[in-house]
Amino acid sequence: MECLGCIRAFFIGDPQIPQYTRLPPVHLDTQFMGENAVIVKNGHRLCGSGASLANHPIAQNKAYFEVKLQQGGMWGVGIATRDVDLNNLPLGTDFRSVVLRDDGCVVGAGSIRHRLPQQVQEGDVLGVAYDHLELRFFLNGVDLHVASPGIKAEEVYPIVYVDGGAVMETAFSSFYHQPPPGYQRILIEQSLL
Fold first, then answer.
1. CA torsion angle 60 40 107 142 (round to 10)
2. pTM
3. Is pLDDT of 9 > 80?
């Protein structure tokens, strides 16, 4: 009889064991995007005009994600708090976001923190590594050595913005390039209670 209980628990579920719902993978969040932003390709491509946060915050110590520049224009990629203005482009003008912009500048709190040594071209892949202290950028897998202080906030999200015909495609897993040592895809935090 005990064996039948095991089979029943396998197929139906054991009331003694908590059931977990499968959380959606990390992607751009249609609930937190600019009014004229358009998200396609299962939440991975941003076009139109505006910004979008990812649907999950960066919870672990060292997280990595990538963005491919599909089409040029005005764009930015980085991190932001949930209360950032998703329609006020370009981002980086206040303490709610730190972004690498299409002009090659890393901007946060309204000031330019770094300038890239080279221009980002269509087809290039930007890697973003964040460890809750600093934000680092990679171009086609190569560290650009432009570490910037992060944001002091309880929750920080990946953010991408586009305007002027730019199209950006995000990769929160299945990366084009290997993340730097110790970094990995954004892990989804789930409460056990």
1. 70
2. 0.87
3. no
